[in-house]
């Protein structure tokens, strides 16, 4: 008998989302900035540790807002890791500014701060950092770099809501940070995001950009008696319906984290012996990092092993996957970006990385099936002794 496919990810249904969604539908207030938006924002502030947050239609849009708030434009350069989702660089390119691709650290797969420093020019305005897998980048080094060169720091924290590194909470470090509530993320509402505004001087303008360049937010609070068009901007405000789902998701943050960690821990504890026997390595979590179990990945010995393990899993009805295709060599990366030094680590690791299924609600039986399948895989390339 053939077994049901284990998906790579699946959105977890939290206890109150149906109830809140019905409440929202019946309230008649479906547009943005209604009661669900306000309630979800309050819980997001608690979960994220940020002082100011604006819910948005996506993380991509929050990144675009960041680029607008920094007034990035033609001639400006922004340092971004090559190993990230297209939106991190796309938000820079859409303003006509140049994403400058920087290689990653081989242990954490986060921006290599030394390589970033070498890529600074007198046009560099900002650094957009990604905390891959919610494992924090080297924050003290990053802040020192930004300080030396007068750069704004934007954290693409799509993976790292509520995670910590050293004394820092991810998403509260940069002038601003972005979150994703896409259905593949730990906390989700189908499509959604947030801009965390840590530097208060950006907040008032951020509200205007999100509301099509108008002061509607101030109008709704009774601070102005009519609202007018004051700036550029777009429609970055999510419907209250989506925020109803998000509210329940955020209220269940601890539960979701616990469920994900149980699976992550099972993988990490069970696969060490198999990995060393097969030339693979497990994720490196620095001692001072508390991560959100957003991804579990293996670095295989070779690209051939990446492909072969993915096939091996598929034959056992399990969906594993690689991750980002390097942006510096992508068609848009070549067209809009600049790559001062080859991103060799990005190219190497993206060709060897395999992510395993990981989602809240995954059954123990499915976790066991994944573990059995992985440990039944034998590396194509013999592992050198010693
Ligand atoms: C998912 C993701 C995004 C995009 O998020 P959306 O909410 O889908 O726009 C951006 N950056 C990173 C690192 C992501 O993982």
Task: Give your account of this protein's structure.
With 386 residues, the chain is α/β, with parallel strands linked by helices. It folds into 2 domains: 17-102 and 109-251, Type I PLP-dependent aspartate aminotransferase-like (Major domain) (Aspartate Aminotransferase, domain 2), CATH 3.40.640; 253-375, Aspartate Aminotransferase, domain 1 (Alpha-Beta Complex). Helices cover 38% and strands 12% of the residues. It is built from 15 helices and 12 strands. It has helices at residues 17-27, 35-48, 59-69, 86-93, 113-118, 139-149, 203-210, 216-220, 240-251, 253-270, 272-277, 303-315, 331-336, 344-350, 364-375, and strands at residues 53-56, 77-81, 98-102, 124-130, 152-156, 164-165, 168-169, 176-180, 193-197, 289-290, 297-299, 353-355. The strands form 3 sheets. A 7-stranded mixed sheet has the order 1-9-8-5-4-2-3. α3 runs parallel beside α4 (86-93) and α3 (59-69) packs across α7 (203-210). The longest helix is centred in the last third of the chain and has 18 residues, at 253-270. It is globular, with a radius of gyration of 21 Å. The two termini are 42 Å apart. The relative contact order is 0.17. The mean pLDDT is 97. The structure holds pyridoxal-5'-phosphate (PLP). Pyridoxal-5'-phosphate is lined by residues 58-60, 84-85, 87-88, 130, 156, 158-159, 180, 182, 193.
